[in-house]
Write a structure and sequence with these properties.
Layout: E1 35-39, E2 42-48, E3 54-62, H1 75-85, H2 95-101, E4 105-110, E5 114-122, H3 126-138, H4 144-159, H5 165-179, H6 197-202, H7 205-215, E6 221-227, H8 231-241, E7 265-270, E8 276-284, E9 286-287, H9 293-305, H10 312-320, E10 326-334, E11 337-347, H11 351-367, H12 373-390, H13 394-407, H14 413-423, H15 426-436, E12 443-448, H16 450-456, E13 465-466
Parallel strand pairs: 2-6, 7-12, 7-13, 9-10
Antiparallel strand pairs: 1-2, 3-5, 3-6, 4-5, 8-11, 8-12, 10-11
Helix pairs in contact: 1-4, 1-7, 3-8, 9-12, 9-15, 10-11
């Protein structure tokens, strides 16, 4: 079962799109425009593609883990798994057999701001596949047996999460960053919360039933479809599938705002026996409607965003010093504030050196950015070329367009993005580096062997505070 994860990468706004010539437009890529329809309140985006006899559909529902009730973090993820595997009122047991018999895939997941349900089958199975998908969305049985098994599996998975030290570090870093910006009482929903064993144990099947009743409505749904199909037949199938599914006028719950308050901190999550240390360092990022997003993305790329040896962190920490296996940076943009973070993996004995060097490079970028023309050009060209090298299919394009729609971006966002990146100047990058980087307020989190980390800081006045994850 795949689980959606928050989208905080430097190029979070891009996605995957098939390369198309954009000569004469000043753009690297001129995206094709999907056909758009509204059916019983649902937004449909589709591309026909008859090269292969395949069919792909992904449903995006407004909602997500940020709306999890206090103390029941993990409800959105567990609910989507239960809805997916718990059968429907008409088909309590046969779904898995059908998916396997046609060689298809059916996956449900959750992200902070939306829920997903995706179907991939051969084109000959498109109609029964869509009927099954919408049967699950409208009439899930959410059988108790499946719920209890999935809940146990989720708890077991969470208990093993520390086995991947880097993933563990990145997961636990965000709560540290967001806690300083929380302006509301603890009883309200907050960004950065994480599911815990205790919160999963509190979730009951009725919570999943309530979750479905709260969020599943056709006018909160965006459906993307690509592949080998006939549009008239697709629309007819969807009209039938959406019959007797009433829309809602109810608004989504309000999310308490954050303030951009920052406070430095130095923490260690101890994992005895590790021979390497994972380092995450940063602070609150920015909102995705901030017009300075584009120079910030270029600045981040120069600092370490590509993960390449040509970035400043890659050059100083990995190439010249050989002190890290990997080092990179992400500047996150969110509905409220995202998270800026720099990440490194190093031998345990190099922990103190790498932390200090990362701080130094962030401070230098803030106080004396002095962007070189070669750095600026390389960053801009690399970001723009990502349209050609990272984008592979119309299905991936539609998935990004659905997210842009959910986020309220303009219809021509991909073209706008390229023009804004092209227009970024040296002065823009230096200005945002001075304005948006806060080296005095860096949170630092290490995941590593406590004895090895202590040894690397031998003789230093700075020592990390040991964290205990609930």
């Amino acid at each position: 079962m795949k689980k959606m994860v928050p989208l905080l990468a430097c190029l979070i706004f891009l996605g995957s799109i098939a390369p198309v010539s954009a000569q004469g437009t000043g753009l690297y890529y001129q995206p094709p425009k999907p056909v758009t329809r509204t059916i019983h309140g649902m937004t449909l985006l589709f591309f026909e593609d008859h090269h292969l006899p395949t069919f792909h559909a992904t449903a995006y529902l407004r909602g997500g883990s940020v709306y999890d009730p206090l103390g029941k973090e993990g409800l959105a993820s567990l609910s989507m798994q239960t809805i997916r595997l718990g059968g429907t009122e008409k088909r309590p047991k046969e779904i898995e057999e059908w998916i396997e018999s046609v060689g298809g895939e059916l996956e449900f997941g959750s992200a902070p701001e939306f829920l997903t349900a995706s179907l991939s089958v051969l084109s000959k199975d498109a109609t029964p596949g869509l009927e099954l998908l919408f049967d699950l969305l409208k009439h899930p049985a959410m059988e108790a047996e499946y719920f209890e098994n999935l809940k146990k599996q989720s708890i077991d998975t969470l208990k093993r999460e520390g086995e991947d030290s880097l993933r563990y570090a990145m997961r636990e870093f965000q709560p540290l960053v967001y806690e300083a910006g929380a302006t509301q009482p603890a009883g309200l929903r907050l960004w950065g919360r994480r599911d815990r064993v205790a919160s999963l144990q509190k979730i009951r099947r009725q919570d999943v039933v309530n979750f479905h009743q709260e969020y599943f409505y056709p006018n909160r749904l965006i459906l993307t479809v690509t592949g080998d199909f006939k549009p008239d037949e697709l629309v007819k199938t969807l009209e039938a599938a959406l019959t007797n599914w009433a829309p809602t006028a109810k608004e989504l719950p309000k999310i308490p705002p954050l303030e951009q308050r920052m406070q430095a901190g130095f923490y260690l999550l101890p994992k005895a026996g590790l021979t390497q240390t994972s380092v995450v360092m940063g602070h609150l990022g920015e909102k995705r409607d901030n017009p300075d997003k584009y120079p910030l993305m270029v600045m981040n790329f120069i600092l370490g965003g590509s993960g390449a040896l040509t970035s400043r962190m890659g050059d100083e920490i990995r190439s010249k010093a050989g002190k890290a296996y990997a080092v990179w940076s992400l500047f996150g943009f969110g509905k409220d504030y995202g998270v800026f973070q720099t990440i490194a993996q190093t031998a345990a004995g190099n922990s103190a050196w790498v932390v200090e060097k990362m701080r130094e490079l962030i401070t230098q970028m803030h106080t004396q950015p002095e962007i070189l023309p070669s750095e600026l050009n390389r960053a801009k060209e690399s970001i723009l070329r990502s349209f050609l090298f990272s984008y592979e299919s119309k299905n991936a394009l539609l998935q990004d367009l659905a997210k842009f729609y959910l986020w309220g971006y303009p219809a021509d966002y991909l073209e706008e993005f390229q023009r804004h990146i092209r227009a970024v100047t040296k002065q823009d990058v230096e200005r945002v580096a001075r304005q948006y980087l806060h080296p005095e307020a860096l949170k630092v989190l290490l995941v590593g062997d406590p004895k090895a980390v202590e040894k690397s800081y031998e003789g230093s006045k700075e020592q990390p505070k040991v964290l205990k994850v609930p």
